[in-house]
Amino acid sequence: MTAKKPTTTAIWNDADDAPELSESFFKTADLYQGTQLKARGRPKALVTKEPVKLRIDADLLAALRESGEGWQTRINDMLRASLRLAGRV
User: Fold this and answer.
1) Mean of the pLDDT values across residues 37-64?
2) Span 14-35, average pLDDT
3) Are 12 and 18 in contact (CB under 8 A)?
4) How many angstroms separate the CA atoms of 6 and 74, rounded?
5) Which pLDDT score is estimated for 17?
6) Which helix (H) or strand (E) holds 27?
7) Strand pairing partners for 32?
8) Quick one: which of 80, 49, 73 has its CA closest to 65?
9) What is the C-alpha separation between 11 and 24, in angstroms, rounded?
10) pLDDT at 75
11) CA distances from 6 to 3, 10, 12, 21 (A)
């Protein structure tokens, strides 16, 4: 079995040869809180949605898409409202 190589190799021998810590370096640097790596980006939602494949008529899909951004959310709201009317939610 081969030994693991370090993830980064030092490209300098003397500490004075270290690269300059520029603004771009800090923009891409990992952020740690103690020893825990802090995740970047949007936090995970408490309630997530599941992707599904749904077959609907082309004219209905076109009308929903023409209603603008958020059409998938509006479909979700319509389905939830119809289930409430049926007394299932």
Assistant:
1) 90
2) 83
3) yes
4) 50
5) 75
6) helix 23-28
7) 37
8) 73
9) 19
10) 93
11) 10, 10, 15, 22
